[in-house]
Automatic annotation (TrEMBL), chain A:
Protein known as: Phosphate ABC transporter ATP-binding protein
Pfam families reported in the protein's UniProt record: ABC_tran (PF00005)
GO MF annotation, one: ATP hydrolysis activity
Domain of life: Bacteria
SUPFAM superfamilies assigned: P-loop containing nucleoside triphosphate hydrolases
Keyword Coiled coil listed: no
InterPro entries per record: AAA+_ATPase, ABC_transporter-like_ATP-bd, ABC_transporter-like_CS, P-loop_NTPase, PstB-like
Gene3D superfamilies membership: P-loop containing nucleotide triphosphate hydrolases
Record-annotated ABC transporter domain positions: 5-247
Organism: Kribbella capetownensis
A single cellular component GO annotation: membrane
Gene Ontology biological-process annotations: phosphate ion transmembrane transport
Family matches, as PANTHER family: ABC TRANSPORTER I FAMILY MEMBER 17
TrEMBL record, chain B:
Biased composition (Low complexity): 350-361
Pfam families tied to this protein: BPD_transp_1
PROSITE patterns noted in UniProt: ABC_TM1
GO CC entries: plasma membrane
Source organism: Kribbella capetownensis
Family: Belongs to the binding-protein-dependent transport system permease family. CysTW subfamily.
Residues covered by region (Disordered): 1-20, 338-361
Classification via InterPro entries: MetI-like, MetI-like_sf, Phosphate_PstC, Phosphate_Transport_Permease
GO MF terms held by the record: phosphate transmembrane transporter activity
Biological process annotations from GO: phosphate ion transport
NCBIfam families for the chain: phosphate_pstC (TIGR02138)
Keyword tags: Cell membrane, Membrane, Phosphate transport, Transmembrane, Transmembrane helix, Transport
Name of the protein in question: Phosphate transport system permease protein
Subcellular localization, as worded in the UniProt entry: Cell membrane
């Protein structure tokens, strides 16, 4: 469980357009790392390179190294499908499979891994729903469609779906941006618990959220529109928010930026 | 200020008049009178007229069929729906549609069984597998199939394609011949129901492919990426996200294709060999036969007496009803579930979320 990610010299492209330039960082296991920065600075794009979801978009490609537990995710002989089974992802908008029941949504990843044993499926689904703080709300309607839940519940369902396959890392791309404050709080509490077992990386536009949930914070910025985004500064969240080294970080955090 | 339909807003009172009005209570009134809706009226009557016309045409076709069919049906000495005999005209007209109904339905169903999986496969290939420079030509080629006139399909089917199918027919008959459906009658006839079905399948392929393709491309990125992020392969992603979303679209596309196959005339007429009147009826798909449409077209020369004509028209009426029902079923499925069954699900989810919020509050 929970592995260290080491990124070095990563460039990310959409066709000819360089979206992210020369990122190097280390993400510690069993911690929460937050990516902050203005819109369009490439933090979500960069996040999607950590489980090779970036290359789903036609023309998208990556240069550089992403080491997970000493293995290069972009090395030869690495199957992106296998990478995504180890590095799970939660999206900005809750995206449960609309035709599947709550149970089947959580079990979907396990079924992909070939788990057929009903007893084991039931156990894992229950455990994952507990893990996502959703069990008490849905235990009586596991056979109902996942799309019938509220937005916040749907997002926790997606988290349950992601943790059901016991990944090493969970990536979250602005997981609360479509949710109300109460649901956001529920997710934030959940992230706090998840880091005991997983390495969590979260992209957020909400600075308070980054300050609340993360141990490390990375600030991304871009020089101008059309220029690639860069990692400006990364450090302990306390230090980034109280005493950043870079002026750009301070400007952004204190709201003097844009 | 402007009229509700966004036509020319009535003019504001001129500036000096307004200034003058400040001191004078009885100033000029705002012009809020009618602004003239001639365009609206014209267009509205045009639209209503067109709508009414379409309904009128459909009703007249129905009434025409009924009016001519009923007297003939009243004289019919055998069961119209269940008899396989077809001897209209004369003092004792005896005719029933059972044989035609069987051939029409079985040929269309086999066409569907062949066409729908291929259409779904082509649609998936074009939307998710093919590189762009290949996808567009393939999609256009399939669309072009729809532009080939059915008489060409008929000629090509019987002269070129049927001989090619002979080994397939022999193989199927050898393997499954113990079923009456696949029992091959003696002789070397290739103008059989099976051949007609294969050609029909090619003919309905474009419409089923086009609609399936349309619906598959509409699968939300969120669903597709959700599956991929769980570690689904491309095929697993298609099974988890694309096919469930597109299912109702594929079903309605198939129904539209079925509607076309049921009514197809010229191609079937050319391909199907008409069995001898004395031969016993054969239910095999490797025998000849006649569909509603091909029978009517084959015997157009016989429409010499109202009794005979009425019998054929009664058969046409059945085809009309069957096609109508199939099309209605297709529309119903589309309307009930929208693309990807979105509508019902959205309602349900909205209802569920609202109920939840209510419970929380």
């Amino acid at each position: 469980m929970a592995k260290r990610i080491e990124v070095s010299g990563l460039n990310v492209y959409y066709g000819d357009f360089k979206a992210v330039e020369d990122v190097s960082m280390t993400i510690e296991p069993r911690s929460v790392t937050a990516f902050i920065g203005p819109s369009g600075c490439g933090k979500s794009t960069y996040l999607r390179t950590l489980n090779r979801m970036h290359e789903v978009i036609p023309g998208a490609r990556v240069e550089g190294k992403v080491l997970l537990d000493q293995q290069d995710l972009y090395g030869s002989g690495i199957d992106p499908v296998a990478v995504r089974r180890v590095v799970g992802m939660v999206f900005q908008r809750p995206n449960p499979f609309p035709t599947m029941s709550i149970f089947d949504n959580v079990a979907s990843g396990l079924k992909l891994n070939g788990v057929k044993d009903r007893k084991r499926l039931t156990e894992t689904v229950e455990k994952s729903l507990h893990g996502a703080n959703l069990w008490n709300e849905v235990k009586d309607r596991l056979d109902k469609p996942g799309a019938g839940l509220s937005g916040g519940q749907q997002q926790r369902l997606c988290i349950a779906r992601a943790i059901a396959v016991e990944p090493e890392v969970i990536l979250m791309d602005e997981p609360c941006s479509a949710l109300d404050p109460i649901s956001t709080l529920a997710i934030e509490d959940l992230i706090e618990q998840l880091k005991d077992r997983f390495t969590v990386v979260i992209v957020t536009h909400n600075m308070q959220q980054a300050a609340r949930v993360s141990d490390q914070t990375a600030f991304f910025n871009l020089a101008a529109t059309g220029k690639p985004g860069r990692l400006i500064e990364m450090g302990a969240t306390k230090q980034i928010f109280s005493n950043p080294t870079e002026k750009a970080t301070e400007d952004y955090i204190t709201g003097r930026f844009g | 200020m402007s009229s509700p339909d966004g036509t020319e807003p009535p003019g504001r009172p001129a500036e000096p008049a307004a200034v003058a009005a400040t001191g004078d209570q009885a100033g000029p009134k705002l012009d809020l009178g009618p602004v003239g809706h001639l365009g609206d009226r014209l267009f509205s009557s045009l639209a209503h007229g067109s709508g009414a016309l379409v309904i009128a045409i459909v009703s007249f076709v129905g009434i025409f069929l009924l009016a001519l069919a009923i007297p003939a049906l009243a004289d019919d000495q055998s069961s119209f729906l269940f008899s396989r005999i077809w001897e209209p005209g004369g003092d004792q007209p005896r005719f029933g549609i059972a044989a035609m109904f069987y051939t029409t339905v079985i040929s269309s169903i086999i066409a569907m069984i062949i066409a729908v999986p291929i259409a779904v496969g082509v649609a998936l290939f074009v939307t998710y597998y093919a590189p762009k420079r290949l996808a567009t030509p393939v999609a256009h080629a399939v669309d072009l199939l729809a532009a080939v006139p059915s008489i060409i399909y008929g000629l090509w089917g019987i002269l070129f394609f049927a001989p090619i199918l002979r080994p397939v027919i022999n193989g199927l008959a050898a393997a499954l011949g113990w079923l009456p459906l696949f029992e091959k009658p003696p002789g070397d006839n290739v103008g059989v129901v099976f051949t007609a079905s294969v050609v029909l399948a090619i003919m309905i392929l474009p419409v089923v492919t086009a609609i399936s393709r349309e619906i598959f491309t509409q699968t939300p990125v969120a669903h597709r990426e959700g599956a991929l992020a769980l570690g689904a392969t491309k095929w697993e992603m298609i099974r988890m996200a694309v096919l469930p979303y597109g299912r109702s679209g594929v079903v309605s596309a198939s129904m539209l294709g079925l509607g076309r196959a049921l009514g197809e005339t010229v191609a079937v007429l050319i391909i199907l060999s008409v069995p001898n009147a004395n031969d016993p009826w054969n239910s095999s798909i490797f025998a000849g036969g006649e569909t509603f449409a091909s029978k009517i077209a084959n015997n157009a020369a016989e429409f010499d007496s109202p009794e005979k004509t009425g019998a054929y028209i009664a058969a046409g009426l059945v085809l009309f009803v069957v096609t109508f029902l199939v099309n209605s079923a297709a529309r119903l499925i589309v309307a009930r579930s929208g693309p990807g069954g979105k509508r019902t699900r959205r309602n349900r989810s909205a209802g569920g979320a609202a109920a939840k919020e209510g419970a929380v509050a």
